Amino acid sequence: MRLTSLALAAALGCLCLSPAAAQEEPQVVRQNLMKEIGRSMGALGAIAKGEKPYEASVVQTALETIATNAKAFPDQFPEGSETGMETEAAPAIWENMEDFRTKAEELSSEAETLLASMPADQAAVGAAMKTLGSTCGTCHETYRLKR
What we know:
Residues 1-22 form the signal peptide. The chain is an all-alpha fold. The protein has a single domain, classed as Four Helix Bundle (Hemerythrin (Met), subunit A) (Up-down Bundle), CATH 1.20.120.10. It is built from six helices and no strands. The protein has helices at residues 2-23, 26-48, 56-72, 92-95, 97-117, 122-143. The longest helix has 23 residues, at 26-48.
């Protein structure tokens, strides 16, 4: 009876650790970074479209998130993480990592530049969205699998 209880506890422990271990996989980390960028772009887009009122704190948080995450993003593509965890990463990333890093740095730099000049109203947020969206789109065209 005691051995059965220990075996059951060990099995349950492994099941509980599996999701935690999966969260640390580079594919999951990079997906989470990109989701945060997407939410930030969504927040900016809502302001640019007039769906939400302009709030400097929302704009600042969104730009900070984009800058920080874009900077960290390329480090989440180690060899061996080309597949799995429903990744949308194209093989071109590993074939041209330097260009991929450059594009991520461009996005981070653009967000930091926008942050330094802080868009002050809805129109300025719209202009910022165009700048950021263009950079995002260029990278996605080359480095994101189409599903």
